[in-house]
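Allow me, if you will, to draw on your knowledge of protein folds for a short while. The matter concerns a single protein, recorded as an amino acid sequence and a row of backbone structure tokens. Kindly check, if you would, that the fold set down in the tokens agrees with what the sequence suggests. You will find the record immediately after this paragraph.
***
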Amino acid sequence: MSQQVETTAGELHDARESVPVIQKGAYGAGTLTLNLLPGALGVFSFFLITAFGMDPFLAGLLGGLPRLFDAITDPIMGFITDNTKSRWGRRRPYIVVGAILSGVFFAMLWQLDPEASQEYNFWYFLIFSLIFTIGNTMFATPFVGLGYEMTSDYNERTRLMAFANTMGQVAWMIVPWFWVLIADPDLFSSQAEGVQQLSLFVAGACITLGILPGLFCKGIDASDMGNRAEISFKTIFSNLKEVFKGIKQVFKNKPFVRLCGATFLVFNGFQLVASFSFFIIVFHMFGGDYGATGTWPAWFSTVSAIVTAFVVIPVITWMANKWGKRNAFIISTAISIVGYGLKWWGFDPSNPWMIFMPIPLMSFGIGGLFTLMMSMTADVCDMDELDNGMPRKEGTFGAIYWLMVKIGQALALILGGLVLKVVGFDPGAGAQSVETITNLRLADIIIPASTALLAILVMWKYDLSEEKARAIKQKLIELRGEL
């Protein structure tokens, strides 16, 4: 008889389904890498214009074109990793190789020459961006799929994702300070040199941390899985057909579609106004004086990440174990709406310390999003296996889910600029009108609060409860035994 242990929620689960601490730590290191790369990329991309003289329109193309490429590579990589058979498993070889390639090409990406022509730097950056995207997809898609299959226990999945996302928040504690470091003349002779040098440290960290889940984490033993597609040059066309078939099956899964819709709304709303806080702090609180503003914006982002990691995520994990994942998402998202509203009083020119006041409530939005959604996607993978059989499609589900995140991020970049234009904001001006600042502050509150409310409505009828998930798991065991 298998050993049983009691969880905080009071239910019993098999001790074999608990993820060992070393594996949780390794997966958390991978999650840190998963956050650090796009975070650093977002900061460094700003310096394409200021440090390397790139036209803003061309800089926008360099940000958007790789995202379109992602739309092709992510589902293909999901199919490949789902159907791979190797002595090291379906995911781990790709994670190790992908982490190394991601780090190497991230560093090469930013060795631009500020003295070179704009045309040369455009094509240099675009080519290496596409190569970097392939390496990053090779790492990220199997890595996300691995997390879905590291445990089959309903609540242990939430604990794993909570631990991983806590470590992932470390990236967002660090990234805001890249702005300060790159622009510091005491550290680097120019912004270009700062980007070039700092990218090497980011690349080294990502390689070192990114390979750990591939070395230490264990997923499903796929050696006995049937119905896997053959992957070779001879089967390219039939494989592409299977890729589209898998995508079609994924989108027939109604609970998963709700997860994607809610994620798109919450994350898109959050990202759309992400830069607004910086502008509000500079122009509303400090009258456009960047010198007086100092490091307040960096501290705002860093404290947000600290609160999310060490306060919000543990609370959300407790709520999910006690009240279920769906209810925890609805409650945490509702709390974040209150936090967004408090920003009206938090950005107080007479007391800069008030900017930290809304953070504990606001952080429930993003803190709850990825912890709970990734846990629920793992439950959805069980449901898909019951409906469609083997092979399990964690890689495909992970690819589609994160593709929604990337599309939301790209759309947020476009719409964010549009909102700034509509409110009449001019970042090159020394001061902004009272009307512009008021409209900007209202947008900073109304947009994320509205998308969060819509996400609650989307998830209201999400019906993959703990009872249903456990029944699906038991049925799968009866059909094919333990994996």
